[in-house]
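Support request from a user on the community tier.

User writes: "When I paste my structure tokens into the form, the page sometimes reloads and wipes my input. The last time it worked, I copied everything first. Here is what I submitted, just in case something in the input itself triggers the reload:"
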């Protein structure tokens, strides 16, 4: 009998996973759950194995009820509901996949990740199940790519995860994923692993410039709040050859849009008086940022109007020693661009890389390719799991190219 999958959240990521799993022979049923009935109905209509359900993500009992009998729960809900989804998976005796590390586990997010590993890990292990956290493109695919890069080193000193969102439309569309998530990440202090310790760095700080062979000009990359330095910092000794410094660097149109707003105080979450009214600057800005397109007709309209650019990059740079020499390892991730992603799957490039990359983690559950139980972040895959992941990714034209360069 095939596996039953519960997909919580029918946005871009959850929808892509559901569509990919609809093609899997090892899947018998996909329950698509969200509070947005329109989104659920639109998704279920295009699935052959889909069934819709309405869920209030703040209601743990409600999630547990629809999770009964599930073999796998894929959580694509906002971060604050992750603890509820975790508890539902444990109650159902199901495996669990999350696109990011959930909030609300602890008042301190870093402590929360440690708690996930130390307390939720044994609970899943006791049930013989696995939970994998951080399973999109970044975090997720880029974490596995970093492991590939570090294979080339005998010891590692510094790692940069570098992402450039170079897709720009003629219409005003600064973000191709959740604007609220994007602007929160833009305005929060970033995480870095420096001199062997997890630290906080100001947003838009510590710029570096890169111009890889497929770029027309140098691009500025800055600090940006993301999971990777925390995951990898906690696992530096075991999985990353003793790396002492790990950074996530981000560049592109989204940064260029958000940085002046941040510097002007327009991304503040603090209420303030304005001409006799109380406003929250962040909420005011968010109300004027369009949501990311997720339906095929929306994406087609953007293409028909025209793109300014269709480019981007995801690169891992790992610095260290190899055979006694100082070297830099560059691992580049290549994937379909915006128009190619639409022609292949009716998706944006962001949806393709994050959703398809996430679906590969799901497919590994469906086909019993994981060798572990407990709870892991996506940088903790075994070597054979990493090899399987990228072999399957190549079938989707998501490929790696690794070079070792003298420093």
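"...and here is what came back when it finally went through:"
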């Amino acid at each position: 009998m095939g596996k039953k999958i519960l997909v919580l959240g029918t946005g871009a990521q959850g929808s892509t996973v559901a569509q990919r799993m609809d093609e899997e022979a090892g899947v018998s049923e996909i329950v698509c759950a969200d509070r947005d009935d329109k989104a659920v109905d639109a998704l279920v209509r295009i699935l052959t194995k889909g069934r819709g359900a309405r869920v209030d993500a703040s209601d743990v009992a409600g999630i547990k009820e629809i999770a009964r009998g599930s073999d796998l729960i894929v959580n694509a809900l906002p971060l604050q509901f992750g603890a509820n989804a975790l508890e539902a998976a444990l109650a159902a005796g199901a495996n669990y996949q999350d696109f990011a590390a959930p909030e609300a586990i602890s008042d301190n997010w870093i402590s929360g990740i440690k708690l996930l590993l130390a307390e939720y890990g044994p609970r899943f292990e006791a049930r013989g199940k696995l939970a994998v956290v951080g399973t999109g493109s970044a975090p997720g695919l880029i974490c596995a790519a970093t492991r590939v890069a570090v294979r080339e080193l005998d010891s590692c000193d510094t790692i940069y995860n570098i992402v450039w969102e170079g897709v720009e439309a003629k219409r005003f569309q600064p973000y191709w994923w959740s604007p609220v998530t994007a602007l929160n990440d833009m305005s929060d202090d970033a995480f870095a692993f420096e001199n062997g310790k997890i630290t906080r760095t100001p947003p838009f700080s510590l710029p570096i410039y890169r111009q890889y062979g497929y770029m027309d000009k140098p691009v500025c990359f800055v600090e940006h709040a993301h999971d990777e330095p925390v995951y990898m910092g906690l696992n530096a000794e075991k999985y990353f050859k003793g790396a002492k410094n790990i950074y996530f660097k981000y560049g592109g149109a989204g940064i260029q849009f958000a940085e002046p707003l941040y510097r002007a105080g327009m991304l503040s979450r603090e209420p303030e008086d304005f001409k006799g009214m109380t406003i929250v600057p962040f909420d005011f800005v968010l109300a004027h940022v369009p949501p990311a397109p997720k339906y095929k007709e929306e994406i087609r309209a953007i293409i028909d109007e025209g793109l300014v650019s269709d480019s981007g990059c995801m690169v891992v740079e790992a610095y260290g020693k190899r055979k006694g020499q100082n070297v830099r390892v560059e691992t580049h991730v290549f994937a379909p661009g915006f128009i190619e992603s639409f022609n292949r799957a009716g998706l944006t490039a962001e949806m393709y890389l994050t959703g398809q990359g996430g679906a590969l983690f799901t497919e590994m559950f469906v086909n019993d390719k994981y060798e572990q139980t407990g709870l892991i972040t996506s940088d903790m895959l075994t070597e054979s799991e990493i090899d399987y992941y990228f072999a399957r990714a190549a079938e989707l034209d998501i490929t790696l190219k690794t070079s070792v360069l003298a420093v």
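Agent notes: The reload is a front-end session timeout and is unrelated to the input. DSSP finds 15 helices and 20 strands in the chain. Residues 141-345+400-406 form a domain with the Dihydrodipicolinate Reductase; domain 2 fold (CATH 3.30.360.10). Escalated to web team.
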